[in-house]
Amino acid sequence: MIDLRSDTVTQPDERMRAVMAAADVADNVIDVDPSVRALEERTAELLGKPAALWTPTGTMANLIALSTHLRRGDKFLAPRGAHVLTNELGSAAWLAGGMPEPIDTDAGPGRPSSAAIRRLAAGAKQAPYYMLRTALLCLENSHNAAGGAVTPPDEHVQLVATARDSGLAVHLDGARLWNAAVALDVPPAALTVGTDTVSVCFSKGLGAPMGSAVAGSIGFVEQARRMRQMLGGGVRQGGVVAAACLHALENLDDLAADHANAERLASGLREFGWDVARPETNIVLAGVADVPATLTSLREIGVLALPMAGKVRFVTHRDVTTAEIDEVLRRIGEERARRDRRHEATSARA
Ligand SMILES: *Cc1c(COP(=O)(O)O)cnc(C)c1O
Question: Is the beta carbon of 212 within 6 A of some atom in ligand 1?
């Protein structure tokens, strides 16, 4: 099986396991776990924020951020298809208390325009008492459901400025911010400019077995630590995992290889006549007539993918090699040829 379902399926390699085994740890609720602290400091620095907090998952990181930005009766804006809208079981609404409103991605894949934000945020703060108050813009870079599409730094700065003008706070869901930074060839901090909070994952392209972080001001992280505890995220000797996350940050540059593999896969599929846009990072979205049937026939030839946004999603990651991408294409090509031969045989009989 060649597993292209997600970049979360990677196995910690020998070196990462050794780092975890040797990690300096302590109870991170009663005291401070030194490995967790080291990861948080490094993450804050990379993201250009005063502080960061480790969380077990990206979903918890987003929920903590949204809980601090939103009060019941508030509304928040997020690009259509955003993870906080579609993949977090509505916790932004039922736990953080904010009514979600999708923004049209009219500037490009996964990217809303400033005008769209301005329109939806108009009068956010002057709303009468019986109306929802728009409090937050939640961006996503790269945008998962849009096929790992990236927002460049200049456009990001404009969107943040528009949100600020309208009196909104800004959270960035940067689960794959590392991929966006590598694809755009900018430091990660260039993509967090002006945001109040940002979440990132170490468990995706970077290969850690688990772990995310949420970053922002010192005051935000103080509140976030209490919220993490409320949510049951007060992990004790978390340093065993944090050490893997810190080690995973050394893999940042390797993401370029995943992006090249995604491009190789996309162009190969296009040669077979598949409807595939050029990937901007490590996610390839293929438009096919019948998604479930395609996923089944891919599984039959030992290729795993997932449905996403009405398409077939392939994700490249550090546990698939370029040779394996070529093998995927070879198997798909072979399967096509077999089908064509069957077709010819049936037409000949008819
Ligand atoms: C994966 C992901 C998350 C968080 O996922 P977890 O599985 O909870 O770590 C958040 N946002 C986006 C865009 C993601 O792709």
Answer: yes
pLDDT at 160 over 90: yes
pLDDT recorded at residue 127: 85
Evaluate whether 180 touches 191 at the Cβ level (below 8 Å).
Answer: yes
Domain covering 254-349, topology: Aspartate Aminotransferase, domain 1 (3.90.1150)
Which atom number of ligand 1 is nearest to the Cα of residue 82? 13
User: Domain 13-252 - what CATH class?
Assistant: alpha beta
Residue nearest to atom 14 of ligand 1 (CA): 175
- pTM for this structure? 0.96
pLDDT at residue number 74: 95
| pLDDT > 80? residue 231 | yes
Domain residue extents for the chain: 13-252, 254-349
